[in-house]
Amino acid sequence: MIQAKDLEAGELAALLHFYADAGVDWLLEDAPIDRFAEFEAQQAAREQVRRAQVPEPEERKAPSRAAASAPLNPPPSVAVPDDQAVAAARFAADSARSLDELKTAIEAFGGCNLKNSARSTLFMTGQLSSRILVIGPMPNAEDDRDGAPFSGRHGQLLDRMLAAIGLSRDTVAITNIIPWRPPGNRMPSPAETAICQPFIERQIALAEPDHLLLLGNFPARFFFGGTSGTIHSLRGQWRDVTVAGRTLRALATLHPQELLMAPANKALAWQDLLLFSQALRTGSSAEQP
């Protein structure tokens, strides 16, 4: 068997990239590590922190003599309900008064289980001078590794898509609905999406864009509502979306991954980009003929 010490630097880098693209999240250690026990310990520690932050009711602080003499039969521990995690995310998001504060709040937030398996917490990049915000679904393996949205091949194709209509990463802002990569690039659950929703809504409220370019089926359904329909039925149409009390114009098109998997769809994406560019030039959002 070839040892790592026998590989050149370039060969070792290529091997590590291959493992990352294949979804390998952990490297073998010299001694075995019980990841299940490690995860349970992390969960127990977070639960202790959460309980310490919640004030006890008065009756629990001063129990009666009968209660003190009764045998102790503590109830079994339960997971934090999703609605409490959503409320905590909403409070953290609403408390941020700037994008920098919001970035710090998301990085410190521990109420979403996706953060436990992700390497990076992704946040908005780019510029807001154009008042254009490009929104993708969730990070993939390359994004998680590089710590920036739309890295690797997807990012390169997105750069070409933007350049085709005179835009670039230097003139638009780019973000994802979900700030953490789901394990194995799976779709986020409804509960995970609900927990992350306050963060993307607050990003939009603080960034104040005029136009949204939604990439892929997940963002289109997220902003247009409903769980039916595909990107092929949702794309190419300007729609009004209301975020934090403000109405914005949004256009959905295919995600770069869908174009890499089916290059014939590039013609459809090009039609959408022309429609988007037309609205930027004329200030109108006419429907595609």
TrEMBL record:
The keyword 4Fe-4S applies. Its EC number is 3.2.2.27. GO terms for biological process: DNA repair. Keywords: 4Fe-4S, DNA damage, DNA repair, Hydrolase, Iron, Iron-sulfur, Metal-binding. SUPFAM superfamilies: Uracil-DNA glycosylase-like. It is an enzyme of class 3 (hydrolase). It catalyses: Hydrolyzes single-stranded DNA or mismatched double-stranded DNA and polynucleotides, releasing free uracil. InterPro entries: UDG_Type-4/5 (IPR051536), Ura-DNA_glyco_family4 (IPR005273), Uracil-DNA_glycosylase-like (IPR005122), Uracil-DNA_glycosylase-like_sf (IPR036895). The keyword Iron-sulfur applies. Residues 47-80 are annotated as: Disordered. Belongs to the uracil-DNA glycosylase (UDG) superfamily. Type 4 (UDGa) family. PANTHER family: TYPE-4 URACIL-DNA GLYCOSYLASE (PTHR33693:SF1), TYPE-5 URACIL-DNA GLYCOSYLASE (PTHR33693). This is Type-4 uracil-DNA glycosylase. It comes from Pseudorhizobium pelagicum. The lineage of its organism: Bacteria, Pseudomonadati, Pseudomonadota, Alphaproteobacteria, Hyphomicrobiales.
